[in-house]
Design brief:
8 strands, disordered N terminus, elongated, 8 helices, single chain, alpha+beta
Length: 262
């Protein structure tokens, strides 16, 4: 095994909604002498937390697999997270003879991966697709109550990687873009007073624009944290400890005053 190349295009396997567009194949190339052999792979990622009992619907299509396309309905429970749902899917696929005759079932955390057992020369007719849909009742795709920071970071990272944009995502460029998006957010409040700014939430159209700008700011912040490998939860906790020492509650309640310096 002299060389390994990954051409990755993971599927956004969401909880709820319509079946997703199948992911491009993830390929493992094995170089043996002058012959390139291929183990073709399909990858899916589960996003979101289940908010009601139902089923995960998995559809697998593959040339050469018996009963293709093969559909699985796997029970899921209220509160199941991405790792739990993905684990249930891997277990079900691993127990299916049609799947395991052609694939090794792999993956960890929120990922489900099928790797073709045979390393053979590229087969242009081979098509492997996985669509994961949680339904009946639909699971909530994403909300602040059910989505972790890690899931948001993964969502931003995948978007960037699918477009090969990381080459442009230097900390300099990301911090500048973050400031620009923050300025665009400020623009919505530039010529109104404090009372008017509080009423923006009552105007659906204005709030939608502000919401988009908030999302842009957060996306760039998450991209910057990804690039610098900053653990945001730890960073916020540590900074709040510093803030508490800098602005004691008993001295700062109801008003702001610059901290005293000796």
């Amino acid at each position: 095994r002299k060389g390994l190349y990954h051409n990755q295009g993971p599927n956004e396997s969401l909880t709820g909604g319509q079946p997703l567009t199948p992911p491009p194949p993830l390929n493992e190339y094995f170089i043996r002498g002058s012959v390139t052999l291929l183990r073709q792979t399909a990858l899916a990622e589960v996003l979101g937390r289940v908010t009601g009992a139902g089923n995960a619907r998995i559809t697998i299509t593959a040339a050469g697999m018996n009963n293709s396309p093969k559909i699985f309905n796997i029970p899921v429970a209220n509160g199941d997270g991405t790792n739990v749902v993905a684990g249930k899917i891997r277990t079900a696929l691993g127990n299916d003879g049609d799947v395991t005759a052609l694939f090794d079932v792999k993956g960890d955390f929120q990922y489900v991966t099928l790797v073709k057992k045979a390393a053979v020369a590229h087969d242009g007719t081979l098509n492997i697709a996985i669509a994961i849909v949680l339904h009946q009742p639909r699971a909530e795709i994403m909300s602040d109550e059910s989505t972790t920071v890690a899931e948001l970071r993964s969502l931003v990272r995948r978007f960037v990687d699918e477009r090969d944009w990381r080459q442009f995502h230097s900390p300099k460029n990301l911090s500048m873009s973050l400031a620009i998006e923050a300025a665009e957010l400020m623009e919505h409040f530039q010529w109104i007073d404090i009372a008017e700014s509080r009423r923006v939430g009552d105007d659906a159209a204005k709030l939608a624009d502000v919401r988009d700008e908030i999302a842009d700011v957060l996306c760039y912040l998450l991209a910057l944290a990804n690039e610098l490998n900053v653990d945001l939860a730890t960073a916020i906790r540590d900074k709040m400890v510093k803030n508490a020492a800098k602005y004691p509650a008993e001295q700062s309640r109801g008003h702001y005053a610059p901290p005293k310096t000796d």
